Here is the input.
Amino acid sequence: MDFDLNQEQRMWRDVVHDFVAREVKPMAKEVDEQAQFNWEAVEKMGPIGLLGLSVAEEYGGTGVDAVSAAIAIEELGWGCGSTALAIAAHNGLGCSTIALYGTPYQNECFLQPIVSGGGKLAAMALTEPGAGSDLQGGVRTRAERIGDEWLINGSKMWCTNAGVSEFIVTLVRTDPAGGSHSLSLIIVPADTRGLYIGPSEKKMGLKGSQTNAVTYEDVRVPTDFLLGEVGDGLKQTLTALDGGRIGIGAISVGLAQAAFEEAVSYAKERQTFGVPIADHQAISWMLADAATEIHAARLMIYFAAWLKDQGRPYTREAAMAKLFATEMAERVCRNAMQIHGGYGYSREYPLERMYRDARLMTIGEGTSEIQRLVISRSVLHE
Ligand SMILES: Cc1cc2nc3c(=O)[nH]c(=O)nc-3n(C[C@H](O)[C@H](O)[C@H](O)COP(=O)(O)OP(=O)(O)OC[C@H]3O[C@@H](n4cnc5c(N)ncnc54)[C@H](O)[C@@H]3O)c2cc1C
Here is the structure.
């Protein structure tokens, strides 16, 4: 299925696929079982451009088109959910906000050093103990301008990569009065005094991707670490999330593809009642549905990415693609496990890991309910 990819995009997909097959997929079981971040693979991602997908070439990035970025994240998802989530959050949240809104100084200072793969990753902290879906109303982390510094106090939850980050792009309230212009994004280097990163959360899946709580206690950063203008934070965040949702959808397509491939080969091998289980219609139809849904989800992801590349609005299409792809991945992983019978439930087989990893995708970067909210608003106001 090539969805009219151009030659460059096809070559890129092959390069990333080969890399993931070699460096990422074989480690996925261990990454999950040891809850270990796959640094070895991440360090090798710099040279092939996977750490600078949204970063301009002049700052050392690859600055690929959005379809190519989605392809890369999909391939990573095919290899390992944990690694894919870390790299998607790095590119789609931490780096892309600076690439979109950063000054040349911020690009040089923060992006250039991390795209090569020698160091750490980027993170973005939006969610708080009391605020996830409702960032506008719920964010309590405060930033106050004092002279030429921002003074930040508050706490964040569920920050992917915080424990392995060079910096955390942080959503703060700069106007206590509230409203849609009361939030701002500030870059906070991870080694800033007063910034405390909690231990990695114990999660159902994606165990090799670090997720941490972050506390800001009288954290001070220079005023020029603000992204764009004061009060632009909500708008900037929503834009970043549009792109990030393509990434989460792409991981889901990759996870589903991997589960599907396992199911196809198992269904051909496993025999019951004297025939391969693939010969039972109940099984072959599950495979037919999976192939159809993966195909549809992939097209939706690439289409949203293509709209983004054209500079056209894509909020609704990104939400639709995320909603469909993430819910599809859960179904496909569930059925792939079903096809494996008892073995599917065993940790000796990769299905249960894929199933656990896929489960997050309908929650992170906007739950399915929030996607439906975005889509229905757009449909009703058209
Ligand atoms: C592994 C992991 C990684 C994450 N990484 C990051 C990260 O890097 N950075 C970051 O900032 N956050 C991150 N998150 C947080 C994630 O984005 C939030 O958990 C998510 O947006 C939901 O927010 P919440 O958990 O506060 O749920 P809530 O907002 O409290 O929602 C609870 C439930 O209510 C529903 N709901 C809420 N409002 C409505 C409504 N208006 N209509 C209908 N239903 C509604 C939700 O859909 C959900 O089912 C991560 C989370 C996890 C688990």
About this structure: The mean pLDDT is 96.
